[in-house]
Each structure stands twice: as structure tokens, then as C-alpha cells.
């Protein structure tokens, strides 16, 4: 027997999915345990072992690998709870990270914020100026040494940082992506002075042109690298002590995993790791259900996440924005807002009801958890409205106190707005639906897609309670709630289903026509790095897939577009075909005629993505066929619409449902790890894998 385990560590709950090579799949959920999230991982593994009827040591001994998605890097950066780091750069270029290429005033800001120019600032700098130091050296644009590295000056600057307590240093020199020799020598000098200092090089973390983005990416990677290293080292050590037979892998933003021992050196690549598991899971399930256009929505305890699968492939991006800084990370495109089950409801100074972005998280949690929390959340509203059972969550293991929920809603929302507790709870429910609907429109419609061409997948602990409503906001006819054995742990299922994925990139700007020999040399170098990286993962692959890409742009225009490049030896025709794909994709994105081809086309950054396909991935087992109508477990009053009061609503126990059962709304389906609402006017049908398909009546 060989197991594969996916573990998704969220701000509120830690989910896990285990599958084996015989087609069995089980899932478990446990509260997250900040600040030591590793304890939550060990807790959820114990729950998996209990379901297997084995000890955790026996289970781990037969585990092929564990794929782990973590929020630690992203949360640390977003909340700016990172240690002080040092920064070394070429003399004369230190202030680039404070000037921020003008972008620091507008990147990551909402349209509303951008309208108030005088209120904008750049106080979100990455580190104080006393920790940003310069060294004498210079490369030219072709990587030739113009000024030799002053090694004595490097030693003096490193000692200055050490004296100020700095234990991690980011190194980003001008044109280092063309020749990394000086950066590598600085790392050697730091090791000679103090081998325990963490060092990140821009030529390894982000070998791309454009100074500000490369600097900010390297600095942020340095800020989270030591913490990620310590967390993964401790977790892997604890797992090995319990007998883990295979490696611990860490999910990356690009939708693939990497060995835990390698993740800290590319720490910034893990910032979106926990966001991508659901997109990968949706892609896998979509292949089984015949869906190629999918809106993947994951509503957990803290966040609401949206990703798109278009024509069977997840949408990708080459950059992201964190705290107003551009980050060079190949990533699956995922949009997020703080509107999960634990998002706090509050009334602003203007008397408007707001939801999030702050969350009650696992500690203290929603008021109804009765752990000291006093702020009302979406979860409290759902309990008051009768959507959640008063018997508690996680099959009754997580008790809920409805009186605490009512008290929190009354004090913080109902009384300030002059509403009854029930109407205030319904208002929280409605505002949450509106917020998620807005993000969906931004992610789908504003990206140029027609929602009617998509199926919406909804998962996470909170998503199934809202999904039919926010699908209606968007105009999507069919909703799929992945249930079966994975239920709210669907993101963990995506982690367990993920393969090993590595990416290497290199900027080498040139005007087309590019010398095919030069382009082939770049791709060959990157492919060699990717294959060597895959060899270091400690796993045997069924096969390896290699994808070549190049970022192109029109000369005198800023927007770069990524296009695929054919395999095999490159010739002039292959590069011309890539240029033609660029022009078509540019027109699709920005409109016909927006490009200026007469100015010429430039190839900017070359990229190779490698995917090591693992021998097996989770296969959801089939569900028994129904032999009669869906059995109801009773009725309870549920309040779903403002002004309609409570309606006596049928309640269904998911464990009693079988393939082919049809449930007409309004109805509530209780799953051990989530709750599904089928509103009036919609019908839910259980498919052969246990998933619930919710469609409009008559559709």
C-alpha cells in the first residue's frame, strides 16, 4: 500500500486528504494552531490515521509523499510580520527600492483609492535605509565586468549589518541576471564571515530585467526564507520521527510542488501555495466531469478565492503584487478577498455594514466557537439563520454556541443599524454574497469571459452555503459542489493531486528577429536547470513534461505577453510563429489595433516549466446508485432572504445520499465538514462521484 497525502494549512482550519494506489480517498479537518501551525498538521494526520484504523506511524511509513500548502509566507508578508533583513546592491542604485519606479503609489490599490491622489503615499517600504547598503561593482548589459567587485567593501558592509542584528541578506546587483559572478562571490564572502546568515541572490530568485521588481522580489524572499526554513525543518523532523517514509513537498504558486529542503531558497515561490490547490483540484475533477471552462471558488475560514480554468488549463501569470510591490513569481492566477466564514462583520462610521477583510481566524475564532471571540462573523450569521446545525461543526466535534453568536450580532450589527438580530444576520449573509459576486465579476467578466460559458465549482468549509447565491449574481447556470470523500478539504485534494513543477527563467532582451542559436542556448540552459532540479526532488516520475515560453512586447509599449514556443531545435520560422501568437494574444487581451507592430517586437524573458508527473494521483471512488427518493432527516426553520422570515426547510444528511438523488430547494444538506444550501428555484442532483450539481429549475 502507498499513500499520498495533501495538507492545506489555512488561517482557521487545516485540511488533509489521503489517497492510496487502490483508489480509496479519505479526508479530515482540524483547527489550525497559530503560531505553531505544524501542530495542526500533526493533529489532522492523526485524524486520517484514525479513519484508516492504523497508527500515524504506520500510515506515514507507507506514505509516498506529503504535499503541503502553507499560508505562512503569504500571511507574514501581508501582515508585515517579518524579521529585519539587509540589502546589498550596486553603488548608486540603493534608492531604487524607495523610489519604487513610481509603481509604489498605485500597485495593489483599488480604483476608489486611486481617485484620491493626495491620500496616496509610499510608506510601505520594505526595509529601513540603514539596512540598504551599496557595494562597488558594475556589469554592463551584456554581462561584461566594467568595475571589479570591491571585496573589502563587501566585508565592511556585511559586518555593519551583523552589528545591527541582521541575520538574512538580500543581494541584487545591476545586470546580475546577465552575469551572476559578483552576486555569487558576495554569498561566499558572507559565508566566510558567518555561515549561519541566510543569503538570497536575485540571479537565482528572480533573474529578470527591471530593477525594482527584481529587488523587491529578492528582498521579500529573504524576509520569509528563514522563517519558512525553520518551519519546514521542524515539521519535516517531526514527521520523520513519526516514521514518514517519503519526502515532504511544498506547494508553489505555479501549481506544482517542490521538496521542502529546496523551498526556502526560493521562498517567494511559495507565497500563493495554499491558493492554488483548489484550482489544481478543479482542473483534475473537470477532466473527469467533462468541464473545460471552470470558475474555481474556495471559501474557507479567512478568504474567498477565485481562479479560472479556460479550455482545460488554469490561467497563469508571471507576476503578482504584495503590499504594493511587484513580485516576479510564475503563478496560477488567483484573486482573493478577506470574505471567508470567519470574516468579521462591522459597521463603519457612515453606518454601512462591512464584511472583512479582518478575520477571527482559528483563535479566538467566531463568537459561536465560545473561545473568547466577541466579533460577529459570517459563521455566526449562518448559525443564527439556521443554515448551520446547532449540534456543531466537524460532525459535532466543534461545538457551536448560538447565544454567543446572537449576542455578538446584536451588539456589533443589529443595535447600531436598528435591526432585529435575525435581519442583521440576513444582512451579513447578503453583503457577503454581494462581495463575492463583485470579485467574481472582476475575475471573469472584466477578464473578457462570458460567465454563461462556465461551470462554477464551490468548495471550502463556507463556500457551499453561499455558492448558489453568488453564482446567481454572476449569471452562471450550473454549480458543482465537490463532495464525496473530500468535501471542504477539496484544496487538500488538489495538493494531493499535484505533480512536481519547477520553473526557471532568464531575461535576455532582443529585437526580433532573434538569432535562433541565441534563443536555443537560453532554452537549453533553462531546461538543464529544470531537469537537474527535478532530479533533486527524491522521487521517481512516470514521465517529465517540458514547456517553453517567452515573454514578448511591442517596442515602445510596456505590456508583456507570455506565449509558448515549440519544442525541438529552434529556427527563424519557430520564432516567427511565436511572434504571430504574441500579436494574436495581445489583440485578444487589449483589443484589435492596440499593438504597434511597425515599431517591432522584442523577446524579453525566456522561461522553461518542467512537470514531473507522479505515478498515481487521487481517483474519487464511485458512489452507490440511489434506489429511492432522497431521505430527509427532518426539517428546521432557516432564514435565507431578508423580509421572508424563517421557512420550514428540509434537512438532508449527505452520508445517506446516493448517486442520482435529486433535492429540490429550498433545502440544506449537512456534510461532516461543510453545509450546502440549495435555494428556492434550484435543484441539486448527486452525481456518480458524490458531487452535487445545483442548477436552476427548468435549466
TrEMBL record:
Superkingdom of the source? Bacteria
Q: Ranges for the Hydantoinase/oxoprolinase N-terminal domain? A: 5-193
Which Gene3D superfamilies does the record cross-reference, listed alphabetically?
3.30.420.40
Residues in domain Hydantoinase A/oxoprolinase? 214-501
Location of the Acetophenone carboxylase-like C-terminal domain: 521-693
Signal peptide, first to last residue: none
The name on file for this protein is Hydantoinase/oxoprolinase family protein
Q: Which organism is it from?
A: Actinomycetospora aurantiaca
Lineage, please? Bacteria, Bacillati, Actinomycetota, Actinomycetes, Pseudonocardiales
